[in-house]
TrEMBL record:
Protein name, per record: Uncharacterized protein
The keyword Transmembrane is annotated on this UniProt entry: yes
Organism superkingdom: Eukaryota
Taxonomic source organism: Oidiodendron maius (strain Zn)
Keywords from the UniProt entry: Membrane, Transmembrane, Transmembrane helix
Transmembrane residue ranges: 35-55, 62-84, 96-121, 142-163, 178-199, 219-241, 256-274
Length: 311
């Protein structure tokens, strides 16, 4: 967002008089909502870890269940910090931690969706999907995503520890660039999904896991829609001008914050849980070339060491 000129005394410096996403947490409005979100994310964490452990005992390891567990746990911590923030409104370090976790946790979802849409694209168009140049590009995209996360966190924290307005302005522009890249990274999932839908399946196309390819595409279409809306919303936030706290924009309000930032995530978490994405999107271990996905069909052949195709 833009510069925040009104600063309290003492480092770290808490911006005052400007609108922030979700507003200043209050006991009356935020604690009940955060408590509900904690319960929902806790159930999601328990569900994903339970499924992972049950599958692991059968020799069926689906690491993305652990990733979704990690997402849920990070959101539990985020909402706990927001509750603490309501009781300690002047504790800047708690505010920083809450904002950093709010921005960081969603990247897990971005990565999971890219992996899932890439699996579908590779199954529909094996030669294109397993192209070595595409694989190298995706690996580079992962590295840049991690770099963007480090940059975003570092410069978010920096803005709370300096009064140098030029440095703060530079930090905001660096954050904007990093979050814009995160949105572009997320659009990659949408691109693979669209290509999977509009390109006819190749003669050597495959299926994998359980369920039809149409079911997989439908589930991913819902998840990708919510995730891209979420990433676009986050990008719009950082690129928008700062508004006064007395006149916040709609995107700074609590309903927008809780419904879009957390609500959309929860939809995806439970969509994956209820559709058993751990079975539907499973692929044989070590898949690295056309034909590997169909070497073992879940539920029809004994399962060896599963999971993790090479990107």
């Amino acid at each position: 967002m833009a510069e925040m000129p009104n600063i309290n005394s003492g480092s770290p410096y808490l911006p005052v008089g400007v609108a922030i996403i979700g507003g200043q947490p209050t006991v009356r409005h935020d604690i009940p909502v955060c408590a509900v979100l904690i319960a929902l994310y806790l159930a999601g964490a328990v569900g994903n870890m339970t499924i992972f452990q049950l599958n692991r005992r059968k020799g069926h390891k689906f690491i993305m269940s652990v990733a979704m567990f990690g997402l849920c746990m990070s959101r539990i911590i985020t909402n706990v910090l927001r509750i603490v923030w309501t009781t300690q409104p002047n504790n800047v370090r708690i505010a920083i931690a809450a904002q950093v976790l709010t921005n960081a946790g969603v990247l897990i979802l971005y990565i999971v969706l890219l992996l899932l849409t890439l699996r579908v694209f590779r199954a529909r168009r094996p030669k294109m999907g397993w192209n070595k140049h595409l694989n190298r590009t995706i690996k580079a995209a992962y590295f840049l995503l991690f770099f963007a996360l480090v940059v975003t966190v570092s410069f978010t924290v920096l803005t709370f520890y300096t009064l140098n307005m030029k440095l703060r302005t530079d930090a905001v522009w660096i954050q904007r660039s990093a979050i814009l890249y995160m949105m572009i990274f997320n659009i990659t999932s949408l691109t693979f999904l669209i290509l999977s839908l509009i390109l006819p399946p190749a003669l050597d196309s495959e299926n994998f896991g359980t369920g039809s390819m149409g079911s997989k595409l439908t589930i991913l279409a819902v998840a990708v829609f919510f995730c891209n809306f979420l990433s676009g919303f986050r990008t719009g936030l950082i690129w928008s001008a700062t508004r006064p706290a007395s006149d916040p924009a709609w995107y700074d309000t609590k309903p927008a914050f809780y419904v879009i930032i957390f609500g959309f995530e929860i939809v995806i978490v439970y969509l994956f849980l209820f559709t058993r994405f751990d079975r539907m999107f499973w692929v044989p271990n070590g898949s690295s070339k056309p034909g590997d996905y169909s070497s073992i069909v879940l539920g029809e052949t004994s399962i060896k060491e599963p999971e993790q195709e090479k990107s």
